[in-house]
Design goal:
Blueprint lengths: L16 E3 L1 H7 L3 E6 L11 H14 L4 E7 L3 H13 L2 E7 L7 H5 L2 H7 L3 E4 L6 H14 L4 E4 L6 H21 L3 E6 L3 H12 L6 E5 L4 H19 L10 E3 L12 H14 L8 H13 L8 E6 L10 H4 L2
Parallel strand pairs: 2-10, 3-4, 3-6, 4-5, 7-8, 7-10, 8-9
Antiparallel strand pairs: 1-2
């Protein structure tokens, strides 16, 4: 059934799986591996590339003249969407939401924002006093009233179409699992598309590897509901069994003050992986996700014999926009 959905190849897949030997030894177990979706190729890589491989053909099929999407100022999704659009000859408009209270100028202009512009996307900043969804809908409706055919991609590319990218990712993991025997998959969960795709993939491929999401924005209950809603729709598209809500596991202890706000755990995890494995995490997603993995390990959520796979969702390009957080 998955093969029936239109797809455009935008990335370098399958992405490699590496054993984090130094980190595993440093933490005293479990055996930690990393799925390098930060190496997916498109515009410095990241997890959104997989989603865009299914979303962009849908936009083309619907004869879109303009692709509009939303995200936080340092959105990895916005960068990869801008890159996909320029590659496929589509115009792109990005509406950025200001989620940090008092960010420095570097946060507002460098990192992903600089690359958005480099890829030719038009950028609109949502006023702080407005809801980004309401604001974006006003823009969409205004442009549609002028005759522009618009394809709107939700934040993170996280709907049932985008989730198909992580159904495919799980298939990659399954194909290599005879070498690793993974007992757990851990990743950062935000807009919910990655976790939803992995969970839909578990049903579609009848896979029993548990999936744990480390929330970077919403509380546990809210995030689990978001994940369930997208997963259910993806399962319906794939005509496979619908997951039970009990299969959704989310930890919300590592968010800190809010989405995109630095935490000590994120900074420590990012520094640790850089110094031990020469791998760069990002401050918003993978840094907090790996901080969660470290803390769960210290709290004995895994045994020394477990083989844990961490999915690196990319985004290290935003480190330059967060240098201030690491210099405190």
């Amino acid at each position: 059934m998955l093969e029936k959905f239109k797809k455009i190849n935008l990335g370098h897949f399958p992405t490699p799986i590496e054993h984090l030997k130094n980190i595993s030894q440093f933490l005293g177990g479990p055996n930690i591996f990393i799925k390098r979706d930060d190496c997916s190729g498109l515009a410095t890589g990241g997890n959104k590339t997989r989603k865009l491989e299914f979303l962009m053909p849908d936009a083309i099929n619907k004869k879109a003249e303009l692709v509009i999407t939303i995200g936080a100022v340092q959105s990895n999704h916005a960068r990869q969407t801008a890159a996909a659009c320029t590659l496929l000859g589509l115009k792109c408009l990005i509406i950025l939401e200001q989620r940090l209270n008092d960010p420095p100028e570097s946060y507002m202009k460098s990192g992903n924002v600089f690359l958005d512009k480099l890829f030719g996307a038009e950028i609109v900043l949502c006023p702080k006093n407005e809801n980004v969804l309401d604001y974006s809908q006003k823009i969409v409706q205004d442009l549609q009233s002028k005759g522009t055919n618009i394809y709107f991609i939700p934040g993170g590319g996280s709907n049932e179409i985008g989730a198909l990218g992580y159904v495919e990712c799980l298939n990659e993991i399954i194909k290599e699992n005879s070498k690793y025997n993974f007992t757990q998959i851990v990743h950062a969960t935000g807009s919910a598309g990655t976790q939803s795709g992995l969970l839909a993939g578990r049903k579609y491929f009848n896979c029993n590897i548990p999936v744990t999401g480390i929330s970077v924005r919403y509380d546990k209950t809210t995030q689990e509901e978001k994940v369930y809603a997208v997963t259910k729709k993806a399962c319906e598209m794939l005509r496979c069994n619908i997951l039970d809500k009990s299969e959704i596991v989310v930890y919300d202890e590592y968010i800190g003050p809010g989405y995109g706000e630095p935490t000590e755990g994120m900074i420590e995890a990012t520094k640790l992986l850089a110094k031990k494995e020469a791998i760069l995490l990002d401050p918003v997603y993978s840094g907090k996700g790996f901080a969660g993995l470290i803390d769960l390990t210290k709290n004995k959520k895994f045994t020394k014999d477990d083989n844990v796979l961490f999915i690196h969702t990319g985004g290290a390009v935003s480190l330059s926009a967060y240098e201030w957080a690491f210099n405190k």
